[in-house]
Amino acid sequence: MYAPTSLSSPRSGPTSGDDGALTDFDGAGEILRAWGNGLRPDPDLTVSEWADRHRMLSGRASAEPGRYRTVRTPYMREIMDRLSPGDPTQRIVCMKAAQVGATEAGNNWIGFAIHQAPGPMLAVQPTVELAKRNSRQRIDPLIDESPDLRERVKPARSRDAGNTMLSKEFAGGILIMTGANSAVGLRSTPARYIFLDEVDAYPASADEEGDPATLAEARSGITSRRSTRRSAG
């Protein structure tokens, strides 16, 4: 990598008596390092690799706070990695028991998308109230405890609609959270990614407008990555 240290040119000659004039000041090294880091592309990670590297679990959202470790729930690794941009899979269906770490795997996907592959995302809980609770107890800690996410998501401000309880705006995309009982929420925005959580608890119809999962998936294009999770008994 080349960093200029002089304004000299073959035609005009040096414009300063000191060839190091452009870097001969306090903080020059830090500026050049930051500039170099900005040119470096993000590493090509899978969702599970991203989680192990960047995800921190809060005491508000986890019984085991600290760095997220996929080895604690190794059966979720393939599911998460199938949600990575390099995988051709378009739809992931997970039939599972309760409390096996699937929701946190889905949250890892949300964090990965915000950081590595931004785009509009729709996350659907059975009801709007559950979506609000999930936002407070899981999504806010996900962002607050991960510096790479915290610097990308707009801070919550009373007059700024970019970051509310059910909407998190970030560079290149937005996360919309809603309930399967709200037809308005399900059709509010196009979505590149759709995360349907606890589908078995969805109502048969959203405000008498039809199947919530079908309404949500209609928000996506043919290149979307959709994660539908079903609970097993």
From TrEMBL:
Question: Which residue numbers delimit the Phage terminase large subunit GpA ATPase domain?
Answer: 62-220
| Location of the region described as Disordered in the Swiss-Prot/TrEMBL record | 1-23, 205-233
Source taxon at top rank: Bacteria
Residue spans of biased composition, Polar residues class: 1-15
**Name of protein:** Phage terminase large subunit GpA ATPase domain-containing protein
